[in-house]
Design a protein that fits this description.
3 domains, 482 residues, single chain, alpha/beta, Alpha-Beta Plaits, five-stranded parallel sheet, Rossmann fold, Beta-Lactamase
C-alpha cells in the first residue's frame, strides 16, 4: 500500500530511536484509520518529508542528528502545513517543551500507556485542521444522508490476516536490514505471537552453551526457562532436534485450569538450526489454524536469515580495516601501516610526525547524553581529522576516546600547524545533545622524527602520548609538543 493509494486516510511519519515503541505506535495509529510509516533514523525522516507527503510527523527529540527539533525546523520551511508532534522521555522534556515553543503542536512521553492518547491527539488535530480549511458550502437545501456502506461498519480494531501478514513481514524485513539482531528477534517474537494468536512470543538462539532466550518474556520465569532451555531435553531442544514445528504443554499452576500450551518452530539457516521461535500460551478454546502455522514457519525462516546476516556483518567487521563506530582505521591496522611508513622514513631519513588526540570529558558526555550520542561525537571528531590532514596521512582510533594521526614527510613546524588546525576544528563542533547543545574539545600531544632514542613507531607513539599527558595536566583543549 502506498501513500498515494489512500488519499482519504491520515498519513503519519514516525521517527524515534525506540523502534519497538514506533512499531506499537504505528499499530495504534492504524487502528485509528491512519497510514503510518516508520523512518529508520533522523536522516531518513528528513529525506522522506517531501512537501505535502505526510499530514503529521511524530519525531523523537533524541534521534541522532538530525533530531526531532531539526526535523521540525526543516518542515516549517518546506512543508508548513504538516503538523509536528515530538516524542521524549522524562529527561528530555525541556527539549520537547522548547520544540513546542518553536512550533510543534505537542509532545508526548514514549510510554505504552500513552499510545491511545497520541493517536487520538494526532487524528483529532488533523481532522480539526482539515475542517477549518474547508470552504463554507452551507445551503438551504436539505438532503437525506445516505446509509454507510457495509465496510464502514467494521470494528476499527479488526485487521485482516493479509494486512497483518503484510505489515509484520515488512517490519521484520526492514529490521533485518537496518536494526540489531536483538531488536529483530524481538519483532520476530511479537510477530509469532500475533500469528499464532498466543499471548507471548520468545526466541532462543544457538550459543556455545546451548539454546538461550534472547528476547524479553513474561510469566513464571524459572519454570519457563527450565521448560525451554533444559539441556538436551527442553522444549526448544526437542524442536531443534526434530527440525519441525512441535506443540507441548505444562500443567497450569492453579488446579482446575487448562494446561499451558507451547508451540515452537525452528530457525534454520544453511541447513543448520540457529534458533527456535516459541509462542505461548495458546488459547485453550480455539483450534490451531494451520495456515497461520505455515506463516509462522515462513517468519521463522526470515528470522534465520537475520541471524545469518548478523553473522556475516560480524565477520565483515572483523575483516574491515576501519573502526565501525568512528570510521577511522582500527588500532591494529593503523599500527601495521604506521610501522611501514616509519621504516621508510628511517631508511631515507625523511621526517614524520605523530599527533595523539584525546577527546575531553567523553565520560561526562556519555553519562549526560548516552553512549549512542558519544559514538556520534567520535564519528564527528574522526571526520574533522580526515578533513584536515592529507589523503596520504593516516588517521586511526588509538584508544576508546583517543585518535592518532601520522603525518608523512612532515617536520616539527608542519606538525605544529596541523595540530593547531585539528584543535580548532574539533573545538568548533557543536552537537545537539539530549540536554542541549554539546561543545566538543580535545587535548593533543605531538611528537616528530628524527629525534634521539626513537627507533620505532612505538617510540614515536609513546613520545606523543607523554606530550598529550602533559597537556592534559595543564587543562583541556590544549597542545603539548615533544
Amino acid at each position: 500500500m502506498t501513500l498515494d493509494s489512500t488519499p482519504d486516510k491520515i498519513r503519519v511519519l514516525i521517527a524515534d530511536p525506540d523502534i519497538l515503541f514506533c512499531v506499537r505506535l504505528r499499530r495504534t495509529l492504524e487502528h485509528h484509520g491512519c497510514v503510518a510509516t516508520i523512518a529508520h533514523d533522523g536522516a531518513d525522516a528528513v529525506e522522506r518529508c517531501a512537501p505535502d507527503r505526510y499530514d503529521a510527523v511524530i519525531a523523537g527529540v533524541t534521534l541522532p542528528s538530525p533530531n526531532g527539533l531539526d526535523i521540525l525546523r526543516k518542515l516549517q520551511t518546506q512543508s508548513p502545513e504538516t503538523l509536528v508532534f515530538l516524542l521524549c522521555d522524562e529527561q528530555t522534556v525541556p527539549l520537547a517543551e522548547s520544540g513546542v515553543r518553536e512550533g510543534a503542536l505537542a509532545y508526548f512521553l514514549t510510554s505504552d500507556e500513552d499510545l491511545e492518547e497520541i493517536a487520538e491527539a494526532v487524528t483529532g488535530a488533523i481532522e480539526t485542521t482539515e475542517e477549518s480549511r474547508k470552504p463554507d458550502l452551507t445551503t438551504d437545501i436539505e438532503t437525506e444522508a445516505e446509509p454507510l456502506p457495509p465496510t464502514a461498519l467494521a470494528e476499527p480494531g479488526e485487521i485482516s490476516l493479509d494486512s497483518l501478514l503484510t505489515r509484520l513481514m515488512h517490519e521484520l524485513v526492514d529490521s533485518t536490514l537496518t536494526k540489531s539482531l536483538v531488536e529483530t528477534m524481538k519483532l520476530l517474537a511479537d510477530a509469532g505471537a500475533q500469528l499464532l494468536e498466543a499471548a507471548q512470543g520468545v526466541v532462543l538462539l544457538a550459543q556455545p552453551t546451548g539454546l538461550k532466550i534472547v528476547t524479553p518474556f513474561e510469566g513464571p520465569t524459572a519454570m519457563l526457562i527450565e521448560f525451554l532451555e533444559r539441556a538436551n531435553d527442553g522444549f526448544a531442544y526437542r524442536v531443534a532436534s526434530a527440525r519441525k514445528t512441535l506443540i507441548d504443554a505444562v500443567p497450569a499452576e492453579e488446579a482446575g485450569q487448562p494446561p499451558i500450551q507451547f508451540i515452537g518452530t525452528p530457525l534454520i539457516a544453511r541447513d543448520q538450526v540457529v534458533g527456535v521461535l516459541v509462542a505461548y500460551p495458546l488459547a485453550p478454546d480455539r483450534s490451531l489454524n494451520l495456515a497461520r502455522v505455515m506463516w509462522a514457519e515462513m517468519f521463522a525462516a526470515q528470522g534465520a536469515l537475520a541471524v545469518e546476516l548478523d553473522r556475516i556483518r560480524q565477520e565483515n567487521v572483523l575483516l574491515s580495516p576501519t573502526d565501525p563506530v568512528s570510521g577511522a582505521l582500527k588500532r591494529t591496522t593503523f599500527l601495521e601501516m604506521a610501522d611501514r611508513e616509519f621504516r621508510r622514513s628511517w631508511r631515507y631519513n625523511h621526517p614524520i610526525a605523530c599527533i595523539l588526540i584525546d577527546v575531553d570529558d567523553m565520560s561526562v558526555i556519555n553519562l549526560d547524553n548516552s553512549h549512542e550520542f558519544g559514538n556520534i561525537v567520535l564519528r564527528q571528531v574522526a571526520a574533522v581529522c580526515r578533513s584536515i590532514v592529507r589523503s596520504v596521512d593516516l588517521v586511526g582510533r588509538y584508544e576508546a576516546d583517543a585518535f592518532v594521526v601520522l603525518l608523512l614527510m612532515t617536520g616539527r613546524e608542519g606538525a605544529k600547524t596541523v595540530a593547531e588546525r585539528l584543535r580548532v576544528g574539533i573545538s568548533a563542533l557543536k552537537l545537539a545533545g539530549t540536554q542541549g547543545p554539546v561543545s566538543v574539545t580535545a587535548t593533543l600531544g605531538v611528537s616528530t622524527y628524527p629525534r634521539p632514542d626513537c627507533a620505532s613507531i612505538f617510540d614515536l607513539l609513546n613520545s606523543a602520548q607523554e606530550a598529550q599527558r602533559r597537556a592534559r595536566r595543564a587543562g583541556a583543549n590544549r597542545i603539548a609538543y615533544s
